[in-house]
Design goal:
The chain is built from seven helices and 94 strands. It has 1187 residues and is mainly beta. The termini are far apart.
Length: 1187
């Protein structure tokens, strides 16, 4: 009996110790997992209740991870399921998923049962849930015939559905034979059981097609019941009646629901008139968010039920004749649910840990433990393991104690099964965060630097910055997972951070970098604008951002995107809207984003109507200014507004002129809203005020009003003292006191003077003083060098002094530092970087405020005999707290000298003793030149000169080269090394007529320098003369123009086609060719001959051009279309003259005939009749056609 309390206390102690050990999950980094053993973990499995479609293969999922990869086995109905004995059952490779093939006609119900998967490797076994496989069922409706139902109008009626039981249960609904849903209402509705309830029937309810349908969701099949016929008669009137419940029966009933499920309570009443139904909870309130009333308030539905939903619910049905109640007693039970599911535990040898399995339920669940699938009481004994109810405590675990533990929490309503492994590992630390990761953060925002690590025991993580000691305290926050947090990032937080993970097996470190960026800010936001219709408007949006971030600016209107309209033009720092219309009115927002932050600003656009004639205008000037209620420092001003010109006055601006101090200058005094015409003005003493008023509307300001009469205020002592008082020295023995003088308006009276007071801080008790006028500085001479002084400046005038001034601390002048930095040493880091170290100068020798140190250095000479020139003197400045600094961009293989000086605001002090140092060799610069000096059929000769900057002793040259084909594809790269004393080389056995690309670089012992490139082509034929590398130049003429084609093997990349009219003196016309070997000349004139040639080379250097032979291209003349003579001008003129002549002859004949005379024409007429009806002669064909 005495052992039990001690054991309990011991268990509690071990439990507390276990909570102190961080449960370490093995990370899923594939590279890390390759070397770490891990017990199995179930990653995917089928649901506990698995209803399968009999028309499809059965797939039961079971996936797991582990190292080594787990193997799988199954049980069915509690016994081993040997899949090898059933050819229809297969297991997926590298998986435990079962596939049962029933496509050959096998029955799915033959495989119904309870399945469980086991994943196991040499470290343990993990179990899946019990997966219950059942076949979905959609049984047929039993065949039955229904006699017509006869109901008296006003009576209640129930049409029963009673669908066949399916798996899962079917969804029931009522329709007619046209598949139209039957209308439902407060009077007619479907119950939860699928029956159709009529609180009272009407004559309109008569029909012969009440059909109940059942839809089985798993197989997507629908079955229907035989139609039911209902006849409603009205033989005798039915009396009205109080409500009576059709469902449920009686006044009390009880219902149990499980936690997390849906509670549905139903009350359907009979009554005439139709009753209404309401719900209340007698033992509390119905939950508002989770509860809903359905089916015309006849069903109360509560989703996600909790224990608080237990109690008594009452439904009430009432009409004007009475009411009826029913009370439901609802109890809430619960299947087990997790409070704390067991978690995997990774322990180092001899460590302590706890696996906890906490679940709730109603009734309270029982906890059962298993190890590798066996009840824990049947598992091998382990002295380091102890079971305490819902916990397993591990103490001083040993290597080889790895296993998978299962926790089963169950009650009569269900169960929970969870796997948690204990993995005993001894692993040195590993930092998982990517090395050299760069974190970017906006200034004044928090920064989180990760240091994710893994190890067993759990590593301890520490942080370092640059080369400083371990970080601790403010402003740093250290998280348990190794993350370093800086609450408010500043520029000083930039730099390199190192995280170090340690345990007793080793150490691992990683470097990350923090960059602190300036915030993005809108300096000039858009402003409110009132714009007339059809005018343009511009919104500005000037942005300031960190130079290293790229901002993007977008515009929104009323929170949405801008319309797709060309009138909206967004620029880098503005938005322009042209031709504003009424729909453009709204709020415009400028949003500026970078990859780290954003800023936004908004302004409203108001569009006013633009009249056909300028009706809107600036307001007229206010009139009738009057001053009333005079005071020593105040007066009241009233005025009369001018005409608004159809745009309401927004505000009035009141200005004043000081006739005593600034005559003719008008200054703004105050603004008042446009609805006011009176302002109470606060004034200053000793001012001769005149006032005027301007009005502002949507168009602009009015002209100023006529000034008011002058109002003079009496003088007074000053109300304030000069601002910006400072004390500083310009020489080593003086103190210069400066201030910003008062304006005439601030003087408050005549005789303005300044009393300047000073005393040495901590040394002098009495103040020295002097009075001055019309100045803003005073020099105190004979002061000690750089000592603090207390300084005051007080204003006074003829009426007295101003208020007591504030004391300002200043310093007398500085002198040059008197001492040089000591112990100057140089550490050469590499060929271009050196680091200088020095000691601080004594504080007394600074003789001022130390600004820092300057390192002056100069390249004296190169260590190479060919480069001995001196370099210019350079300097680097460092802060006052620095004792070392780096000198960048040095020349390799050189001798440098340097000295260090301290400096203050006066200047630099004496120099330290000069130091000399040498930089080691580096890689050389580019060769002075590199060119192809000669080419042949199968060889090329190359020439070069050494680099100007050798940066060391040249050890040789590297030449690499490769072929380049006509499509610019590169061939294999050849490489050869050349001695340093060689300046040319000839490459033999090259391909003829082939382009080569060369890369040439010099090298020292430190490596190769940058390369020069060059391209050249071996020649096609050996010939002394340089000829164009053109061939097969030809032409063809079509409707599109003249097609010129050629072949070209030369090195030049730029080709042109030139042409000129044959035998003309004009200049050649040039058209550029875009990388092809043909070109179409368009716009040539028909019937002309052109000389054409192809040119290669740059147009800038005429001597480098290569031209093909000239080609003569002749364009055929266009065949002229046949001219219709009847449309030619000369022909029309001739015919008109002939017609006029004939008309004259006819007139003459007519006159003679009237006289009775005979004339030849008359005789011819008599002989031949009317000439107009005579046949045409061949000689007159043309004339006849014209007529």
């Amino acid at each position: 009996m005495m052992d039990r309390p001690i054991g309990g206390r011991l268990a509690l102690l071990l439990l507390l110790l276990g909570h102190m050990i961080t449960a370490l999950e093995v990370p899923l980094d594939p590279k890390l997992l390759e070397g770490l053993p891990q017990p199995p973990t179930i990653t995917h499995q089928s649901p506990k209740e698995y209803i399968v479609d009999p028309r499809e293969n059965i797939v039961i999922h079971c996936e797991a991870k582990g190292k080594p990869h787990p193997s799988f086995s199954w049980t069915r109905n509690g016994t081993h399921f040997d899949i090898d004995k059933d050819p229809k059952v297969t297991m997926k490779p590298h998986s435990g998923t079962l596939v049962i093939d029933i496509s050959g006609g096998e029955k799915a119900d033959a495989y119904e049962g309870v399945y469980q998967c086991t994943a196991h490797n040499q470290l343990g076994s993990a179990l899946s849930n019990h997966i219950v496989i059942r076949q979905s069922r959609s049984p047929l409706w039993s065949k039955e015939r229904f006699s017509p139902i006869v109901a008296q109008e006003g009576q209640s009626l129930i049409l029963h559905c009673r669908p066949p039981a399916g798996l899962p249960p079917p969804i029931v609904f009522w329709m007619d034979n046209n598949f139209q849903r039957l209308p439902q209402s407060r009077r007619v509705s479907q119950g939860l059981n699928g029956d159709l309830y009529f609180s009272n029937v009407l004559m309109e309810d008569s029909r012969n097609n009440y059909i109940c349908y059942a839809r089985f969701p798993h197989t997507q099949t629908i079955q229907q019941k035989q139609p039911i016929t209902v006849h409603v008669i009205d033989h005798k009137p039915v009396d009205e009646r109080a409500p009576v419940f059709l469902v449920p029966s009686g006044s009390l009933s009880s219902q149990m629901v499980l936690r997390g499920e849906v509670l549905e309570l139903e009350c359907i009443a009979d009554g005439l008139p139709t009753p209404t139904v309401s719900w209340t909870k007698l033992s509390g309130e119905i939950p508002g968010r989770r509860a809903s009333l359905m089916n015309f308030n006849k069903t109360l539905r509560i989703s996600d039920v909790s224990e608080a939903d237990a109690g008594e619910y009452r439904c009430t049905a009432r009409n004007r004749l009475g009411s009826v109640h029913h009370t439901f007693g609802v109890s809430v039970k619960a299947a087990p649910y997790w409070i704390s599911a067991p978690r995997n535990l990774v322990l180092a040898p001899l460590e302590t840990g706890v696996i906890t399995c906490r679940a709730r339920g109603h009734p309270k669940p029982h906890i059962h433990w298993f190890m590798n699938g066996l009840p824990i009481e049947d598992a091998p004994k382990d002295p380091s393991r102890k079971v305490e109810d819902d916990s397993i405590i591990f103490s001083e675990v040993q290597t080889g104690s790895s296993a998978v533990y299962q926790c089963n929490a169950s009650n009569q309503h269900g169960y929970l099964l969870a796997n948690a492994f204990v993995n005993v590992l001894a692993e040195p630390p590993r930092v998982l965060t990517a090395p050299n990761k760069v974190y970017q953060v906006i200034e004044n925002r928090p920064a989180l630097l990760e240091c994710l690590s893994f190890g067993s025991p759990v590593p301890a993580v520490t942080w370092f910055k640059d080369s400083s000691s371990m970080l601790e305290g403010e402003p740093y926050v250290f998280h348990k997972n190794g993350t370093l947090e800086i609450h408010v990032s500043q520029a000083v937080n930039r730099g390199k951070y190192t995280c170090v993970a340690r345990n007793n097996l080793g150490i691992s470190e990683n470097h990350v970098y923090l960059e602190v960026k300036e915030p993005t800010r809108i300096l000039r936001p858009p402003e409110y604008r009132v714009v007339q219709r059809n005018r343009d408007v511009v919104f500005e949006c000037k942005v300031k951002h960190d130079p290293s971030l790229i901002p993007s600016t977008s515009w929104l209107r009323d929170g949405g995107e801008l319309p797709e309209d060309d009138r909206f033009r967004a620029h880098l720092d503005s938005l322009t809207i042209t031709g504003v219309i009424e729909s453009d009115a709204g709020t415009y927002t400028c949003v500026t984003n970078t990859s780290l932050d954003q800023d936004s600003a908004s302004a409203r656009l108001t569009v006013v109507e633009a009249p056909p004639t300028p009706i809107y205008g600036q307001p007229d000037a206010p009139t009738d200014l009057e001053l009333t209620d005079p005071g020593a420092r105040s007066v009241q001003l009233t005025w009369t507004p001018g005409d608004e010109h159809n745009s309401a006055i927004k505000k009035f601006l009141i200005q004043y002129e000081d006739g005593l101090h600034q005559s003719g200058v008008w200054l703004n005094l105050t603004e008042v809203p446009g609805t006011k015409t009176t302002a109470h003005l606060k004034l200053s003493p000793y001012v001769h005020y005149s006032f005027r008023v301007l009005a502002l509307n949507g168009v602009g300001y009015s002209r100023p009003s006529t000034p008011s009469r002058q109002y003079r205020t009496d003088p007074a002592a000053p109300d304030e003292n000069p601002s910006e008082v400072k004390g500083h020295g310009t020489e080593h023995n003086n103190l210069v006191i400066t201030w910003k003088p008062l304006t005439g308006l601030q003087a408050n009276g005549p005789g303005l003077q300044y009393t300047v007071l000073w005393r040495q801080q901590g040394v002098e008790k009495d103040w020295s003083s002097v009075s001055v006028a019309n100045v803003s500085r005073f020099v105190v001479s004979g002061t000690p060098t750089f000592v603090p002084y207390e300084v005051m400046v007080q204003a006074q005038n003829a009426l007295g002094p101003g208020p007591k001034p504030a004391v300002v601390i200043g310093h007398s002048g500085e002198d040059f530092p008197s001492a040089a930095p000591g112990l100057v040493q140089v550490v050469v880091v590499n060929s271009t970087l050196a680091e200088v170290h020095w000691e601080h100068v004594p504080p007394r020798s600074v003789r001022g405020r130390l600004q820092g140190y300057k390192v002056h250095y100069q390249r004296e000479r190169s260590l190479h005999r060919h480069n001995s020139h001196h370099g210019e003197q350079r300097s680097e400045s460092f802060g006052p707290n620095r004792t070392r600094g780096k000198l960048p961009d040095l020349h390799p293989f050189s001798v440098y000298s340097l000295h260090v000086r301290a400096f203050n605001s006066r200047g630099e002090g004496p120099a330290s003793a000069p130091q000399r140092f040498e930089t080691p060799e580096g890689v050389p610069g580019v060769p002075s030149f590199f060119r192809v000096s000669a080419s042949d059929l199968d060889s090329l000769t190359l020439e070069w000169a050494p680099p100007h900057e050798r940066n060391g002793r040249l050890t040789g040259y590297t030449l690499r080269y490769q072929t380049v084909n006509s499509s610019h594809d590169l061939g294999l790269l050849d490489e050869m090394d050349l001695p340093s004393n060689q300046s040319s080389v000839t490459l033999h056995n090259l391909h003829h007529s082939t382009r080569y690309k060369f890369y040439f670089s010099a090298k020292t012992q430190q490596g190769s320098g940058p390369a020069l490139t060059e391209e050249a082509v071996t020649i096609l034929h050996r010939a002394p003369a340089i000829a164009p590398a053109f061939g097969n130049v030809s032409s063809s003429v079509s409707e599109d123009g003249a097609l010129i084609s050629w072949e070209y093997w030369g090195p030049e990349k730029h080709l042109y086609v030139e042409y000129i009219i044959d035998n003309s003196d004009e200049d050649w016309h040039t058209e550029k060719v875009n990388g092809s070997q043909f070109h179409v000349l368009k716009g040539l004139k028909e019937g002309l001959s052109y000389k054409v040639r192809v040119v290669a080379g740059g147009r800038e250097d005429e001597r480098s051009l290569r031209r093909s032979e000239e080609l003569l291209v002749t364009l055929p003349a266009m065949v002229s279309p046949q001219v219709d003579i009847a449309t030619q001008g000369w022909f029309i003129g001739l015919m008109s003259a002939i017609a006029l002549l004939i008309l004259i002859l006819l007139i003459v004949c007519f006159i003679k005939r009237n006289k009775g005379g005979k004339y030849p024409v008359k005789e011819k007429e008599d002989a031949h009749g009317d000439p107009e009806i005579q046949p045409m002669k061949e000689d007159d064909i043309t004339f006849g056609e014209y007529r």
